[in-house]
Structures are given as C-alpha cells and as structure tokens.
Design brief:
The structure is a homodimer of 403-residue chains. Chain A is an alpha/beta fold and 403 residues long. Helix content of chain A is 44%, strand content 21%. Chains A, B: This is Putative NBD/HSP70 family sugar kinase. Chains A, B: GO terms for molecular function: kinase activity.
Chain lengths: 403, 403
C-alpha cells in the first residue's frame, strides 16, 4: 500500500525530474522549467541551487534577453564535468565512449577485437582497459557517475549476465560483474540488450520522442528488438522480452543461428539479403555490403532488386504481425535495418496493407532511426545515467565517496 | 509533475484497495486486511466503517474463534445487494448476467439471437431488454453499480465503438452508447474486447492470479488475445493491441476473415481443425465439433489425429513467437482453444522446444483457463466493477443519484 511520499521523497523526485529535463532537452530557463514541471519558481530555484551545489548544473544569464524585467536564469547541465562511460559491444563494433550529462559524446575509442574473438576473458579485459584509460584521461574534477553496456545478445538485466551472445559465441558470461571488477571504478557496470537500450534512446532523444508505444527493430548481424508498451520497456518475466528477430515468419525457411528456421532475422536480416543478392563471401562488412546492394538496386540491378523485394516481403510479414499484436504508434528501423528498410519500403508497405488489421495499421508510422549508428551507444549512456537521474544527490555523494 | 497526494486521495485509494481485496479474495478479517495492506488496524477500522455505511461491505464476528482475546471482525462484500450487469457478446453466445460484488453470478439469461444475426439494431435492443429485465427483477435496495460488455471483435475502448466484429459483420457500430441509451439505467455501458477482458479476469481470479506477464489466447470462432505486460493490459496506441490471432504463421496459407492468409486464427482455430478433420458442414456447434474431434483422436481416429497434429504445429509456431516476443511467465488457453490445446499439447510443446529461445521458454508455463466458459463474462463484470473499485464512495453516490 502506498502511503504519502515524504517531503524528502518529493524533493528527490523533483530534483531527478529537473535534471532529466535539461539532460534530455538541453539548457532551459528557470521559468520554462517551472512551467514544464508545474512547480512555482521559488521551488525551481531551491532545486537548481541544490543541483548547482552538487556540481550537476550551472546557472547563467541568458545570452539574449527579449523581455523587460529580470531575466530568468538558464539552467545548463554540467556536460564536461559529469559524465558516464558507455560501451557498445556489437557484432562488428566495439566502442567505449565518455558521454557527458546532456548526451554529448566527449571522447570515444574503438576497441581492437583481441585475436580470439570468442574469448570472453580477453575481450572483457580489453574493454576494461580502454574504459580505465578514458577515465584517467579526464581533467581533474570531472566525475564518472555510471557505466552502461549495450550488448548484442540476450542479457539478464538484474546482474548483467550474458545468457546468449550468438554473434560472439558466449553462453552465461558474467559480463557485468567482470567489467565492474576489472574497471575498478567503484561503480557497478549495468548491462542491457543493445536493441532494448537503443529503443529507449530513440524514445528519449530520437525518432520516437514523446511516444508511448514503439517498436524498434535493430539490425546488427541479426535482428534485435526493443518494444515500448505504455511508456515502459517490455521486459517480460526475466527481462528477455522483445526478441522479435526470432519470430518465425517463414516456417521451414532459412536456418537461423538460434536453431530454428525462417526467423525474421534469418529471412530479412543482412545475411539473408547478402546471400539472396549473391554477394556472400565478397568480404565487404555487413553494413557496407547492404549499402552496395541498395545502391545496385537503385541503378537497376535485377538481382539486387529481387533480393530486396524478397527480404522486404518477409520484413513486411514481421512488421504486420508486430503491428497487429502491439498497435504501436511507430515502428523504427535502426542499425543496418535502416538501410534494408529504405531499400525495401514499398514491399514492406504493400505487405502491411494486406496483412495489417485496419484499426492497428491506419495510424502507425514507419520511420528510420534518427540516432543512427549511435543509437545503441546512446542507449548504453542512458542506462548509465539512470541512477543520477533518479536520485541526483545521493548518487553524487556515493560516487564522490568511491572516487 | 506529481505533487503529494492529498489525504482525501489517499483515503479514496485505500477504500478502493480494501474493497478490491474482499472482492477478489473473499471475506477477510480486519487483521488480515491490515497486514495485506500494510496499514494499522485503526485505519482499517475507519475504512471499513465508511464502506459499511455506504452499503458495500458488512462486518461480522468470525464463525470460529481460535485465539483468546477480542476477535477481529470479518469484512464481507455485499454480494447480494451490490452488483453489475455483465454482457458476453460472442460468436455463438449471448449472455447477460447479474454478478455480485465478490464475483458471484446472481442470475443470468441467455439471449435468443434475433432473426437477422447481422442486424446491430435488433441485437442491441434484445440485449438491452434482457438487461433491463434482470435489473427490474432484483429485490428493493439492490444496486447496479456498472455495466460491462465483452465483445468478440475489435473495440475502441474509450467510447465502446465496435470497429470490426468479424463474426457478426459489424463495422463501426456504437455499441456502448446505444446500449447506454436503450438500457436507460443512468449508467455508462463500457465495452471491451472479449479476449482482453478474459485475460484480466484470469489474472484477477483465474489461472494467472498474481502474475504480471501473461498471454491469454481465446478461441471463439476466431482466436483473440489478451496480453498482460508488467501487470497492465497491452492496449497500444488506440487500444487495439493483442490481436495475436492475426499473426501470420503460415504465409500463403488458409484464407482468413481479415483478408490475409495463414493467420494463427485461420491455421489453428476451430474452423481449421474442423476442416482438416473433414467435419465441416456436419452441423455440430464449434465447441461440440472440436470436442468430438479430440475424443475421436483419443480413440485412435487417424484423420482426427492428423488434424490435431497439424493444428498443434501451427499453434506451436504462434506460441513460440509470442514467448520469444514477450517472455511471459504463463500462456493460458481459453474458450475453445482450451480444447484445441488439450488435444494438441504434445505438438505445441515440441514446436516450442525447436522455435522458442531457451532464456524465454525455460520458465514459461502453459495452462488452460481456469474460468473456462465464464472467463469473458467475468471479464465483462470486472470491467463493470472498475469504477466502484477505483472510487467506492463517489461511485455509490453517483449511482444512487441516478437510480
């Protein structure tokens, strides 16, 4: 049973909400924040002075003053001094970045994949070393307030164990606890599924901003998914929900890495497209190969066109199924699915017109990711920021203590 | 921005919660309620005395007293005096019932389907007449606190418009407002999709009690669905979510009433089973025909066995897809899907073993509905009770006013 929240809980909630506003929407005047949050200006002033004292925001006079009277101070996130480490561990991409409060990438490093790509130990050590190096390279006074990892596979969110990393051959690897130990920053490393995190990032600051019902399809080598239902990420009982790439759309179809056949991933993902276009083994990376096929189709290449047509048809079945099941307001295509969708949109839409129920399809919008290649990395950053945005002062105190 | 709830809001919330406890779990002592709600006994006493004064509960001495000292009074819902009208408008079933607080069916009437089954006007009049008759037949002092309808089709929940009733040939029929007008009880009639409501009922007092992630498949003529994600019904943008019967599992397969082919409904529903078993046109009703096929298969009939095998295979594909997408803790088979699942469970499970991802399938339970044929009716009743359980005193005052 919910009792009335204490004044302390209300203050904490308001501090987090204010910080989230400037983190997601950028600098804003006290007056604008008061209006958005439905609070009076003296409450806003008290909140911003707490956040300023903690070093999370600064206040300054606006650059342009339009109205007569005392100008409202502008509240700005301390992007250079308060940051997180965001790690993107994808099939063909290993990135570690420092992302400042407000979402600016401060610096980043691509990590060379150690010799045996399947050796979890080596890879985790390499990631931790790069992470530590980035943190050491910051100026005095800068503070790392969280570490988040976007992993391309099935992750148990509560403890960051990778249950299955199909592209990397991992089963039950304790990625979160091992990174926590080897980075030794005094911060717990949180791990999430990359497509789930990208979906949250697209909703926070991308194509799905402000929408409560979103399906995000992420193409890496496979197809991952992040589904937002009623404003919340679909987790399911164990947090494994959203695996829309393993919906069987073509029973008995192409074999899939998961052991089944005809999954959306194996029929409409990059490997299917490359195979249908007769370009397997040409050596171009996944994304580059897909771009080449889309370009070739644009130039009239019949094989490329036919490959995109087939892939678009299966993608259309998958999207129609998801629209019937979820009645979302938007479907977002991200990662390499962005290119695949752009090359096959007509086919996807014609499938949807046949297989989508009128009530559900009449209002849905199909869009490509607006965060592009950065969606998963930005999702990892948002995961890392979640503590400080929930309880700013307590998190700062804890982090300073561990520092 | 959330401000602190007022004492009045807290009281209203607690009154609703207490009433919901005795409504769903039956009579309980004040002491037990205090423990379940985390409130002290004097607060519980104040709440129960308000509810008693409003005529919603009674308090009485327990029948058996085990401990020494003053016994804790037992709080009992006023099931005979406070009731709702619940309507179940299915493909082959038209029921109107009075359901008392606590979930007891007080009386019920099957409604004869007027001559032209597709004439919305006649059917709505017939339902309204039976509803009015049941209300008139109650003893003095009994109070109808809501009217809820479970409809087998796509419903816009906000205003009770039937967007599409495939089995009945309706398009954009204002069922809610027309029933409200013709019943003339001074109560707004709420309408919901039957499978959605049955899912809520199974979670409230059925197989899924206490679970937050449930998929409910409902077989009528078609296959409807109700999906509960994180404790909340999946609605989607327009409230049309959960149409899992129109997930295409067999591209190019059997034609479906929705205009597509190979939907779960057209491959694994009762019509598919009856057709595969060579029993179309035999005249037995859907449920009876399905039961006969399951019985025949049990006796070794090869055609019936093969039909169940095929249907179970498609059902397995559908269930595996849903498990991968939602990671639910339970899948519940209701309506005639109960019989179909019981006759094909081995095939469903073997499909799931191939096509379900380990992390998602290892903990899911497959179950049949425990409310059985009453699931949709009980769902309609829960919809009708929702006002009084949200704000007991205000709803009572409003209803008494309209009476």
């Amino acid at each position: 049973m919910r009792a009335a929240p204490s004044p302390e809980e209300i203050r904490r909630h308001n501090l987090g909400t204010l910080l989230r506003h400037v983190h997601l929407s950028g600098p804003a005047s006290r007056a604008a924040l008061a209006e958005r949050m439905g609070l009076n200006r003296s409450t806003i002033m008290a909140l911003t002075s707490d956040l300023t004292a903690a070093g999370l925001v600064t206040e300054e006079l606006p650059k342009t003053v339009r109205k007569a009277g005392r100008p409202s101070l502008v509240v700005r996130p301390e992007s250079d001094r308060v940051y997180v480490l965001a790690l993107d561990v994808g099939a063909d991409r290993l990135v570690v970045a420092r992302v400042g409060l407000g979402g600016t990438v401060l610096d980043r490093a691509d990590v060379a994949r150690p010799g045996g790509t399947h050796n979890a130990d080596d890879l985790i050590s390499a990631l931790a070393a790069v992470g530590r190096r980035l943190v050491r390279g910051t100026e005095a006074g800068a503070l790392c307030v969280g570490v988040g990892v976007a992993f391309s596979g099935i992750v148990r969110q509560e403890d960051g164990v990778v249950r299955h990393g199909p592209n990397i051959g991992w089963v039950d690897v304790p990625l979160g606890t091992e990174l926590t130990r080897r980075m030794a920053l005094g911060l717990r490393v949180s791990v999430g599924n990359d497509a789930n995190l990208a979906a949250l990032a697209e909703r926070a600051r991308g194509a799905g901003a402000g929408l409560d019902d979103i399906i995000y399809l992420h193409g890496d080598v496979g197809i991952g998914g992040g589904v937002i239902v009623g404003g919340r990420l679909l987790g399911g009982e164990g947090g494994y929900g959203g695996e829309i790439g393993h919906m069987v759309v073509n029973p008995g179809g192409r074999p899939c890495g998961c052991g089944s056949r005809g999954c959306l991933e194996s029929e409409a993902g990059e490997l299917a497209l490359i195979a249908l276009a007769g370009r397997s083994g040409e050596g171009a990376s996944g994304r580059r190969a897909v771009e080449q096929i889309v370009d070739a189709a644009d130039r009239g290449d019949a094989t490329a066109r036919s490959a995109l047509h087939q892939v678009g048809d299966w993608l259309g079945y998958g999207v129609a199924n998801l629209i019937n099941i979820f009645n979302p307001s938007m479907v977002i295509f991200g990662g390499v699915m962005r290119e695949i969708y752009m090359g096959s949109a007509a086919q996807v839409r014609s499938r949807l017109a046949i297989d989508g129920l009128t009530a559900a399809r009449e209002s849905v919008r199909l869009r490509t990711s607006s965060l592009g290649e950065e969606a998963t990395l930005m999702g990892a950053a948002e995961l890392a920021f979640s503590d400080v945005l929930t309880d700013p002062l307590e998190t700062l105190a804890r982090v300073r203590n561990a520092d």
